[in-house]
Design a protein that fits this description.
mainly alpha; 4 helices
Length: 71
């Protein structure tokens, strides 16, 4: 999911995941929390925050999808 955000390469992706402990925590993070990740400045934090909202909605939908078949 982080691969689709401009400016996030392998190194920054690893730093974000290591800082938050996983993708779900990263998707719930605020701009201020993102800025605490080494190598993430305010502009990049804002970009990540703005772009992760649609990614979180897709992620939530994919997590909900199996429930449609078992309800």
């Amino acid at each position: 999911k982080l691969d689709h955000i401009p400016g996030i390469g392998t190194k920054r992706k690893h730093q974000i995941l290591q800082h938050f402990g996983g993708i779900q925590a990263a998707l719930r993070s605020s701009i201020d929390e993102l800025q605490n990740v080494p190598g993430i400045n305010k502009s990049l934090a804002e970009l990540i925050y703005d772009l992760k909202i649609p990614l979180k909605k897709v992620s939530d939908f994919l997590l909900f999808l199996p429930n449609l078949f078992y309800a």
